[in-house]
Every structure is written in structure tokens, then in C-alpha cells.
Amino acid sequence: xxxxxxxxxxxxxxxxxxxxxxxxxxxxxxxxxxxxxxxxxxxxxxxxxxxxxxxxxxxxxxxxxxxxxxxxxxxxxxxxxxxxxxxxxxxxxxxxxxxxxxxxxxxxxxxxxxxxxxxxxxxxxxxxxxxxxxxxxxxxxxxxxxxxxxxxxxxxxxxxxxxxxxxxxxxxxxxxxxxxxxxxxxxxxxxxxxxxxxxxxxxxxxxxxxxxxxxxxxxxxxxxxxxxxxxxxxxxxxxxxxxxxxxxxxxxxxxxxxxxxxxxxxxxxxxxxxxxxxxxxxxxxxxxxxxxxxxxxxxxxxxxxxxxxxxxxxxxxxxxxxxxxxxxxxxxxxxxxxxxxxxxxxxxxxxxxxxxxxxxxxxxxxxxxxxxxxxxxxxxxxxxxxxxxxxxxxxxxxxxxxxxxxxxxxxxxxxxxxxxxxxxxxxxxxxxxxxxxxxxxxxxxxxxxxxxxxxxxxxxxxxxxxxxxxxxxxxxxxxxxxxxxxxxxxxxxxxxxxxxxxxxxxxxxxxxxxxxxxxxxxxxxxxxxx
Length: 530
What we know:
The protein is of the alpha/beta class. It has helices spanning 2-17, 21-40, 44-62, 70-91, 95-102, 125-134, 168-181, 196-205, 217-228, 245-257, 271-278, 294-303, 321-329, 342-363, 374-386, 403-410, 412-429, 453-468, 496-512, 524-529; strands spanning 110-116, 137-142, 155-161, 187-191, 209-212, 237-241, 261-265, 282-285, 312-316, 334-337, 393-400, 435-440, 443-449, 483-489, 518-520.
């Protein structure tokens, strides 16, 4: 993020020295890149500030302003200063905590601010806050009539629980006051109102996420966990199907300037083979080509099961509206004309790819827990093992103790809540770079890149103690549960099956030794560490 911010500063200073349209475009590109990085880090409120400045710059460009007036320049500069202030608040998060997180500290708390209107909270709020704490968040309860400690530093979000007795005007005033108090934090409001106009007004007042009153604690927990998860930003991969060498060179250069990887295909007859070898996130398709046109190539692509959801964007000089509509009807997702706006092209590609990747991720997740499915986990583990030459990699198999007895005694709904509780704890306490999967039933697989056996054992012991201390179920069906775990460290030459088998053997030992414990696999390496 610091690199992106430095790039923005340098380009803005260059523009103030030499106000030219090309340099202003560079400023807008720098804002775009910084906004993407802020979004990747889940600093969504700050990202919106950045996006607003980017939109302002695009407005100046579309207005044909090569040189901004003094008033425009001052306004733009103030906006950048506001962005600086928001990022500085994030960077002011205690240095030792940031370093701790970077140094494999799975236990670093993620902070949630909570605002409750009224003296008596709704009956489900306090149990919800307890659950949030249990899965690894630090909850800071706040009111607007007392000093709120560090309202911005390190907070994932602020939860707002208004009083049910609040009328709409009072609710809006309260939200606006909270927004002034926390100008950059993501605000999540549970609202009693289902009225469209009121909800629009609340969004205008600064709310980022609206939850309906009937949405339970599970929805809030899932949302908080999603906000803390940072997905690795793999390079966007675009296949450029364009018969003109000059046009494809220009397109590829534009994409490269926006950090997008690309591969050019000049003969559309080669598309299917190149799709398999390149594995793109999106196809940029010309319409007018010899032998077969872009519409025909798109229809063939859509016949292939694995590519039916792949985004296909037409980039063409085709002026005939009927042909454009036909292109979309027969498999295209969007149409952009030539000559193209490079910023618009990059924006269309990136938003399309992100939606595609999000949809792909959802198909890989277990419906109950939101964790990776069995088959996907094996594929991810294989990739981690390939990358483990320069750092250690430790795998653990977890199994909830006496789970059949829980289902038999309390019913499957309570059993599901126990499974979800462990999944939430793992997602809340482990890093976004760790692999977490529901391996089957009540069994879980985790992989900790960069962790040796002793480090992994310490992490698992903390998780085990925390989980064993939790209460599950509701009211008169409260119970405690525990898990057993087996740990194995990857060594060169191991297969995925061998590594999991080793961890499974250690898990069996943990069960045989009385359960509710963590056992290291009996290998020469692990014995040497004990």
C-alpha cells in the first residue's frame, strides 16, 4: 500500500509541476491502483474515498480539462489530503501489533467497535458480542457520550444496534453522529426498518451494510469473518482475440500498464486450445475477423461446459446496433467500442474478473461452514507443498470429540451449531494465508505455511483451549465440546496423501490418549524438535 501511495504522490506532484492531460491520466491510474489495494486489504471505507477522488479525476478528464483551474486543483489536493489522513490512521495501528501479525501471530485480535442506542440492549445483543469475542475478535463497546478509545485504529468494522423505539428521524441523526465519530470505519447497521426510502437515507447517511432485524447472529458473524479475510490478488489473466497485430499490441500494452497479464490470439480457430493452456479469467474478443467472426468463436466457447461462465467482453469497431445485440444474445457479456478508453477498459475487465472469481470461490465452499470443500482443499494443499521449498509447512487434522453422541443427545441442528462454532473459530483466529477446510462431517483440515511443528502445536493448543471453553446450543440445550488434532510437517518428496495420512495417524493417537488434545506425528524430525 505504501508503494501505491508513493506512486500517487509522485504523479500528483508531477502534475502540479506540469499540468498535462497525460499526467492527469497517470494520477487517475495511480488512484485506481491504490483503491484496488485498499479493497484487497478490506479497508473498504477508505477505498471508497479513493474511488470518489478517482471519479472526480475522470470527470475532469472527460470534460477535456488538460489543466485544472486553481479552484479545481485545490479541491483535488484537499481530497488527496483526506485520503492521506485516512491511510495514516490505519498505519498508526500500534507498530508492534502490525509486526506481530506479520510474524505468524495467529492470536492477534481483530477489533470491532459496537454502538448500542438506548440503555437496555435487545436480548440477543450481549450473547452475540460474547460469541464474537469467543471466535477471536476484540469488542470495544462505545457510546457517543463518552470518549471512545482509538475509534479508527485497527477496527475491522463498527456494529450499530439502534433502539427499536427510535423513529426514522432520530435513527438518521444517530447514524450521522456515529459516522462523524468514525469517518473511515465500515459501519454495519441492524435496522428495524424495511422501508425503501428510509434504507436509502441510511446509506446516504454513511451506513455501509444494512442488516434486517430478522437476520440473526449467524449473518453478522459471517459478515465480520468475510471482512477479515484477504484473498490473495493473483494477476488478472486476459486472452485477447484480435487478428490485427497492431491492435493486439496496443491492447496488451494498455493492459500491462494496469497490471493485467494477457495473451494474444490472432487466429480465432486456436481459441479452444489456448483456453486450456492459458486458463484466462476473461476473453477480450474482436468481432470482425477473417475465417470466423467473434460471435461464432464465442458460440463455440459457450458450448464447452467449463467455459460457460467465463466472462467474454467484445472490443470492436462494429457500429451496427443489431449486430451488437446479437453478439450479446449469443454469449457475450459486454460490448466496448473502438477506439477504447483505457481506464474504462481496465475497469470493465477488473470488475468482470472479480465477479467471476467470487462466483468460482463460492462453488468451492462448504454450504454450512463457508470453508473449502474436500476436493478443493487437496488441490490447494498440493500448491502449498510445491511452494514449501523455502519455508516450512505444517498440516493438522481436527476432529470434534464424541460428535455422534452430540447429534444423538441434542439433535442435528445443535450438532451443526457446534460444527459452525469451530469453523468460525478457525476462520477468526487463523491467518488469511492459512488453508482451512471442512474435510468431511465433523473433521477439518488446516495447513499453516511458514510454521514448523512446534509453532503449529502452540497455535492448535490455543485453539483447542478456546473451543473447549465455549458453550454451544441455546437456552436449555447448552453444552460444551472439544476437538482432537494430529499435526504433521511436510518434507520434500512427500505426496499429499502421505502428509494427510501422517496427520491422521497423529489424530488417531490423540483420540486413543483420551481426546481433547493435540499430538505431533511420530517422525524423526518431529521427535527431534520435542
